[in-house]
Write the structure tokens for this entry.
Amino acid sequence: MSSSPLGSRGNMDILEELQLIAAQNLERLEVNKYYEVIRELGKGTYGKVDLVIHKIRGTKMALKFLRKKTTKLKSFLREYSISLYLSPCPFIINMFGIAFETDDYYVFAQEYALSGDLFDIIPPQVGLPETVAKRCVHQVAIALDYLHCKKLVHRDVKPENILIFDRECRKVKLSDFGMTRRAGSPVKRVSGTIPYTAPELCDTSRHEGFCVDYSTDVWAFGVLLFCMLTGNFPWEKALPTDSFYQEFTRWQRRRTGTVPSQWRRFTEQALRMFRRLLSVEQDRRCSVKEVFGYFSHSWMLDGDSNGNGGGGGERERERGGGGVRVEGDGSSTSSSSGEEDEEMLVERMKQQTLSPLSPPVSVERGTGGTKVGMTESGGGHHFVSVSTTSSVPSTNSYDRMPRDSNSNQPPGRILVATPIEICV
Ligand code: AMP
């Protein structure tokens, strides 16, 4: 057994080491001296993300600014080090190894995703073409599996955190590791839920803390899949008071054979996959990599009127798959129907950018009494669910989910907040 300093350093936790090194090397810089700021890419209560050009190298980068007033140095170092640690995965955002501080901010540099994030390209009430959704899902699943193999839990899986690197949405990467913690870490909930929040975390009657677990990522990943394929959230909150959720759990727990109205657009195989990903009992939820077993099946039913190019149901199955071919490196290419889907997607992206104020549209779907409609207001696009199954119709409209709970959101923009959990 070696007792050399090298031996003991080898055993030292790599994440801790990365944080210590980052802390030691954290310089104070003036942003404008080294970077030309092009435009803001995103912002939140935490701070902002700016597109910049490195003045010496000419490289485009995304600089993430975390406000010192609201971010502890420890949290900044953790987010930076985790991002750096995970960046070798081809489907996780890459880093430049640059971290510094200004008077007001802690800052780190990431590669720039030129097509923004997934939230902006999911057509509300329509969803992405199946081939495109599958390709994204495949890449996100590889990223999450990588993270889970490293014993980390992302804890904020949602479209806003999936960045797109080309116009055709061929390459996406997982980003934002601000909430990421080691599996098994004790945390306690402070407040708030979003549609991606797993039921065990929504239960406000549970005041005790809980341990960070992979299964919460799996749940969020299941909700994400639903959003990508339909352009709707399946529910507002995974709570019995939410009629959409209640309908789903009755079917999920086999109390009824009737597939909930919002879920009738999926094939049997897709429903089986959702049942596994969205198991209400945390310990019965499958792992993220189980989705790899479902890619050869079609997910959307034939004749799906949402025009999402789900393409083909039975026909596609006969052709031998859902239109996505997975390459050795984990990326995927699409068949010819996939190419048509992509053209449709690019067209839609153009339309969304050009006409953000298109008139509201309502589509009656199925016999279950659930209507889904598209509304666009205030120049942004929303996912909307309108239930007519309950006596009092519930209208859930969401815009981007903030990273932090913030009661001062502009009215009508953000209705629900991300849970904030603090390590204890
Ligand atoms: P974040 O707080 O890291 O989730 O960033 C907020 C928003 O900024 C994201 O939802 C993206 O739209 C945008 N953004 C963040 N990082 C990047 C990046 N590396 N490239 C392009 N856009 C980004």
Q: What stands out?
A: The domain at 118-187+195-334 is CATH 1.10.510.10 (Transferase(Phosphotransferase); domain 1).
